[in-house]
């Protein structure tokens, strides 16, 4: 950028005020994160109207999570190549139009396509918006404050999404998506006057093949898992799905090993904290999205609560996550991020065991879900913050940015995998108990509760795996060793 252009940006920024610009960019991030949770409470209504199967319903969440996570790193690279302001507009426009498609969907496949497009728009807009925040605020206290607020948006948007989803789906589930249209239009109109100009800040290629092959391979892998549980593991479509997934994922690995500008710098794969930390982070994504998926279906399908009441019962879980995230700072300051992560995971394991044991169609909902799930979410809040710090500590510059993007990517993709696996486990158990006969309401509620309880035992197994990975990580050396590796 020339000196004249830079002065123009500074003058425009001064006229608009950095915090006004931040508010608009934060709205973009808020809506993108909110869209991952706002749909949760509406899922039973969507299933009833569009005819999704129990396992197919998971794709309403998975289509968004997989594409968002799979293309997030590509979006960050594209923002540097084509300009951050421009990509905020493109991503927001795609997200807004996709939300309209979702809201007017008359068939299940219409909704899934709309969710795919939503995920792509979010993957383009979110990293570009964050990059603009760092442009607007110079290094110092104000930028740190802005980034701290930005980081807390996840918990706030998650809690707001559950409540808003309950309110909107009580009217009609379509409004869960249509509410994004006026918000997106406002961002596009206000952004033309408020957002500062930005130029391309990088040269080189855009590894679209890497993003497409990696994300496509994961989608086909999840399709094969879900399809195998419904049609059989030896069915032709299942075997084709697995085969195609292997080919695409292998192509992704080969591409990343040879690309001059890979989506993830190869240096990161030599850092134990990044490798093990992101493996744990993916499991945390599976626990969060899978756990909330199970809880909302139990409350509405097995217990018969309407969407708004179910959303109110879930709110304590979101608040507990906020409490846990605040406690994580103190725990990390005293014991270090790895020990804070371990303590949160152990707390989650205990809470998940309690929740799975207590989940029953006749047990009072306070003891069957709300109390154990709230304790679980407190531990989840601790671990999400600790895992992020663990994956990014000791890194600077572009490597730090890539590591931050990788954390979000693994979390979103892990969430998609968690929803697919835990939903499949629950559905198989429920189907086995019901058989082919038409069950009465009481028997059906009991079968659903049993299926969801089995899914929670599966979540407990994921938490145990995360504990084992964290213990392994603690044996691999201190976090400070990352800086040495970066400089090597």
UniProtKB/TrEMBL annotation:
SUPFAM superfamilies: MFS general substrate transporter
Origin organism lineage: Bacteria, Bacillati, Actinomycetota, Actinomycetes, Kitasatosporales
Keywords noted in UniProt: Antibiotic resistance, Cell membrane, Membrane, Transmembrane, Transmembrane helix, Transport
GO annotation, biological process: response to antibiotic
A Gene Ontology term for the protein's cellular component: plasma membrane
GO function term, MF aspect, one: transmembrane transporter activity
Keyword Nucleotidyltransferase: no
Major facilitator superfamily (MFS) profile domain sequence ranges: 21-476
Compartments where located: Cell membrane
Gene source species: Carbonactinospora thermoautotrophica
Superkingdom, natural source: Bacteria
Membrane topology note: Multi-pass membrane protein
InterPro entries, A to Z: MFS, MFS_dom, MFS_trans_sf, Sugar_transporter_CS
Protein's recorded name: Drug resistance transporter
CDD domains on file: MFS_MMR_MDR_like (cd17321)
Membrane-spanning intervals of the chain: 21-44, 56-75, 87-106, 112-134, 146-166, 172-191, 203-226, 232-254, 275-298, 310-328, 340-359, 365-390, 402-426, 454-473
Predominant localisation class: membrane
